[in-house]
Amino acid sequence: MTNNSADLGMELDNNDLDQAIDKARQVAKLNKNWEPRAKAASYDPDTHKIIIYLHSGAIFHLPVELGEGIATASPAELSTVEVTPLGDGLHWESLDADLSVAGLLAGRFGSRAWMERLVQGQQ
């Protein structure tokens, strides 16, 4: 049994497909500027923060000690931060650490267990 559009009673011609692709590209372009997506990130050793530059023009500063997987990393390790291809995350290959840009902006600096430890440490 095959599972293609003809089997489901739907047929897309090239024009319909091109229009759908163009619409998806337009939506992605709009979302890139308004969804929390990073265009760059770097480590600032003077402030010991990760600086996240968003496509919207906003800049977010993350104190390193708040981030799960990076809290105890060395400056050299922190400086290897990479932005994921879609701009929705930060990645440190050598630390095997990943943080969500949307999560960071919402105040979630890691897993539930990590967040609970952070809260307990503030008491």
Describe the structure.
- By secondary structure, the chain is of the alpha+beta class.
- It has two domains: 1-34; 37-121, NE0471 N-terminal domain-like.
- Helix content is 33%, strand content 23%.
- The protein has four helices and six strands.
- The strands form two sheets. A three-stranded antiparallel sheet has the order 1-2-3.
- A hairpin with a 4-residue loop joins strand 1 (38-44) and strand 2.
- The longest helix is centred in the first third of the chain and has 21 residues, at 14-34.
- The mean pLDDT is 87.
> What is the CATH architecture term of the largest domain?
2-Layer Sandwich
Total DSSP helices: 4
In whole angstroms, the N-to-C terminal distance is 61 Å
| Overall 3D shape | elongated
- What helical percentage do the residues reach? 25-40%
- The poorly predicted ranges are none
Largest sheet: 3 strands, antiparallel
Beta strands, count: 6
The tally of domains stands at 2
Quick one: CATH superfamily of the largest domain?
Uncharacterised protein PF10387, DUF2442
Alpha-carbon Rg, integer:
20 Å
SSE run: HEEEHEEEHH
Our estimate of the beta-strand percent is 15-25%
- Helix vs. strand class: alpha+beta
Mean pLDDT: 87
The CATH topology of the largest domain corresponds to NE0471 N-terminal domain-like
CATH class of the largest domain: Alpha Beta
For the biggest β-sheet, the strand order reads 1-2-3
Pfam family, one: DUF2442
InterPro entries: DUF2442
Protein name: DUF2442 domain-containing protein
Organism: Prochlorothrix hollandica PCC 9006 = CALU 1027
